[in-house]
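Entry:
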Amino acid sequence: MAETLASWGGWEPAIRDDPFGHFAQARARCPVQRARLADGHLAWVVLGYDAARQALNDPRMSKDMVAALEDNGDVVAEGLPGPEFSRHMLNVDPPDHTRLRRLVSRAFAPSRVAALEQAVWVIADNLLDELGEAGPGATVDLIEGYAYPLPFGVIGELLGIPPADRPQLHAWFQVLLTGWSGDPPAAAVEASGNIVAYLGQLVGAKRRSPADDLVSVLVAAGDDALTTQELLSSLFQLIVAGHDTTASLIGNGVVALLDCPGQLQALLADPGQLPAAIDELIRFTAPVPHATFRVTTEPVTLDGVEIPAHEQVLVCLGSANRDPGRFPAPAVLDIRRGDGPNLGFGHGIHYCLGAPLARLEARVAFQALLGRHPGLRLAVGRDELAWAHGDGLVLRGLVTLPVVLGPSRCRG
């Protein structure tokens, strides 16, 4: 099938806020297309479920962006803080990927994730207590007051970031992860530099005084196991992946449930459906609409379309997860959907290592919020919500989510 040249990314607000119709139209034209990105670079966009699943697990699709940048000036670097912080497991191939993933996976052992549940509940309840102080009928921002600080607090616990440092670090990441077009603004460059400096200081502190946390585990592995660049890159990646995507899932999920009151009522009637509902919300709301970039090391054929070697590939998870060839009635939110796994956490060797923790955090976040405030409602018109957090490619989240919590049930 012939390639289709189209623009991709940098969308106007209407498409940015609801990209799924745009995805569907593009997928119907051709499930694998060559497209021009918002910055002018060319890349291949994979839109169909079967092609996306193959691409995510194809060893000819390299994740080594540093090597790709050296070999091909047309390959796009993936933003701040830049290539010097790019040696984490999402940006390398085996055997480096295998080594780094094995080291980091110690923090995500099932027993360690399960042991975090009580801490997640404490964080969620405390945040809801603080929101409740605004009083009955008050408008609160569910993103600023709940969706973002909850997973950031959890990743802080996991990494061993001192509680006193978390608000400032969180503020820097919020600036860094706010979307922009063109060159990054001065505030983002400054935030990036502050994050880089802080992570270096954190590693130094853990070298001097190790504790029971992931940073200490990685430091203890020693320079023979990973370089300083790999250590700092891994910490940066874990913080971004460990809080921003989950925060967007919580915010996006709340809006989706409010849009579908029948689904919300079914969940309120039976909270035991939450685990399945979370997977459906991931599929339906696309907090990560695209996987991070890949580069072909040799020609690869996807769905009858040959992608030449040394070409950049962008897998559109948000489109693949709404492919009608895989998910019947894909534009319908159905918390009882039994169509099998979606690609929201990826597939293959780069499948999200933190998926069990993200599911735990989301389950507690929704259970605590809806259990305390079943009458939650939007405080603004639905068309006033803006999905301008993130770049619209790898990240998709709300900037704010003004809600009225409604009458509060007793805690617990």
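The chain has a mean pLDDT of 88.
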